[in-house]
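Reopening: structure tokens for the DLZ complex, inputs below.
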Amino acid sequence: MVKALRIVLGDQLSRDISALDGIEAGDVVLMMEVAEETTYVGHHKQKLVLFLAAMRHFAEELRDKGHEVDYIRLTDAGNTGDFTGEVKRAVARHKPDQLVGTEPGEWRVARAMEGWDKVLDVEVEIRPDTRFFASHQRFADWARGRKSWRMEHFYREMRRETGLLMQGDEPAGGDWNYDGDNRKPWPRRKPVPHRRRFRPDDITREVIDLVADRFPDNIGGLDHFDWPVTRHEALAALRDFIETALPGFGDYQDAMKTGAPFLNHSLLSPALNLGLLSPREVCARAEQAWQDGHAPLNAVEGFIRQILGWREYVRGVYWAKMPGYAAADALDADRPLPAFYWTGKTDMACLAHVIGDTIDHAYSHHIQRLMITGNFALLAGIRPREIERWYLEVYADALEWVEMPNTLGMAVFADGGLMASKPYAASGSYISKMSDFCTGCSYDVKKKTGEGACPFNALYWAFLDRNRKHLKGNPRLAMPYRTLDGWDADRREGYAAAARHFLDGLD
Ligand code: FAD
Ligand code: DLZ
Ligand code: SF4
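Re-run output (same inputs, fresh job):
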């Protein structure tokens, strides 16, 4: 009988992960807590707890099913600190005939794994990750020969291919996309949905103590740790979302509100990215809610598009473009990341709220990431690599394959338009329309320059002026450039000077 050592990484916590396909008595599952993964960036404390606690629970679940699991803890004597070192030690311990793994989510780890068959005296089989709707090959086939890679085109193919929200060959309801209905601000007196959260059990509490002890200086607090860390909890979170928040997901997808970081968002990205939930089951449950008349089509289509469209698409971009993508800097942005990104201490209320929520929960929703912290980094010309590392550190759901294209491609336009047809640049008026942040801010969102003017206003016009050579030809920016070009030189210089003055103050 061939004895296999089966590797399960921290974001592969799915019972149907391909590494476990065909597992037999005598096989050993290897799971490894290693220093390299916990330190390659300074992860938020809650992200560390999430991954390690979920890994420990998953190991228990496998043992309960009768599998032998060799689980290496961070604190075990002899832990070499990286995957390759631990796999070598495990091969020496178990003397398997074969090593079976699933391709990792991150390029860095894939490179390390490529060398395993040379350094290990054992046959190595790395299988595709079948949890995604689109394989790497599927995405490459779609992308081949296309000048621009628009998510919307990819998404329609995925809809056709999966049959999700399809009525024959036609999209359910007649349209592919209902975003026109999905841009409502949060009504002033509307109560915020109450969301189910999860109390840490003994296993998680032990990890919380470990993280508090070993990573005291990492960003974030641990008082609020309440993420789902098991399949059982993740399913409860999915049920809660479908029942309480999905119906309003579409309407308020872009809304932002002080003191309410979650609103109608699903909060499922950590569970999805760890593998506790499968994208297929999540989309199927949402579709069912529409079929049952529980949630409207604009909500369900908007939600499914995030997973079937965006999540698959960014993974495709990442694997098609790495490793060069990491160095993308199409706008030559060269300002260091301001210190307030680590503390939330700024008098710009929008940034203070979003960063404060990030510190407390290791979470903020998409529009907060894109249009507050991302928009500021874009307008201020923050070095892409520094803002990209920041997103990778601070969010519980942050894995490079999903975080990097969102940051470099969507938030700061560092790929020059591969993903986005124009930069997501916005002045204070967008923030004022979609949130209540400005009412509690010391700046005046209506004021363009001068004492007390909202910094986003001057930054917006200065950004367009500064990046003329990169952006002027973009047809989607024709209108703002016409406005800018209609002003005299003094007025333009007024905005540029106000932006410079503000940014110099940050240094
Ligand atoms: P919901 O709004 O409820 O959306 C449902 C699901 O759709 C999410 O759980 C997620 O799996 C998926 N999804 C939504 N938007 C995207 C998107 N743009 N790309 C890929 N999947 C998406 N998402 C991550 O999972 N990890 C990251 O590290 C990450 N970094 C980001 C960085 C930036 C700069 C931006 C702008 C976005 C980033 N996103 C990332 C995408 C998105 O913001 C999060 O997936 C979402 O906020 C997670 O919260 P939720 O589960 O409540 O999402
Ligand atoms: C994010 C993370 C952390 C913090 N720690 C571990 C770990 O100790 N062991 C592990 O297997 N995975 C961890 N992860 C997730 C990995 O970084 C993730 O599986 C790879 O980056 C995927 O390529
Ligand atoms: Fe942000 Fe400007 Fe509004 Fe203040 S006034 S919250 S800085 S957009």
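Residues 9-11, 32-34, 37-38, 43, 48, 51, 104-106, 109 surround DLZ (ligand 2) (CB under 6 Å). The mean pLDDT is 97. Marking as resolved unless the reporter disagrees.
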